[in-house]
Model the fold of this input.
Amino acid sequence: MGINFVEPSGSAEIAAFDALCWDYLAFLRSQTGPFRAALDIVYSDAIYAAALAKRPAPPHGLQRLALCDDQALGCGTIQTFQPGDAEIKRVFVAPGARGTGMGRALMAQLITDCRALGFSRILMDTGAPLIAAQRLYDQLGFMRRDPYAPGPARDAFVYFEMEL
Done:
């Protein structure tokens, strides 16, 4: 599988990126329990749309679209959390591409991008029910940590950091 990681440009790539991000939100909303309740607070449709519209660009961050044979199969965003700290958000692999190594390759690209942008640390979180994502982040060398930002139901999330 030949994967290309691009910064979405042009209307087709931007639309594909946005569609994957909305698919990601739908996936998150399929979860239940405290995570779902917290998600409803942090990611209403309006808040999520506003986050997508920000479109971070170097040197403050970037968006990545994973393409295989010109088919959009994954996405991820890097944004500045505070000077020196990147936050990786909205990492998603389409269901048909899961189990192929796409998620690992996408995360490796995002880590490389964080280094290239000059960040010294990566912060990120994922939902407590998302065990496969947690396992991947552990395997990539992220360390678990306490919450790095205030918010609802912090126990519904698992927090990570990586020194670069």
In short: The chain has a mean pLDDT of 94. The chain is about 40% helix and 30% strand.
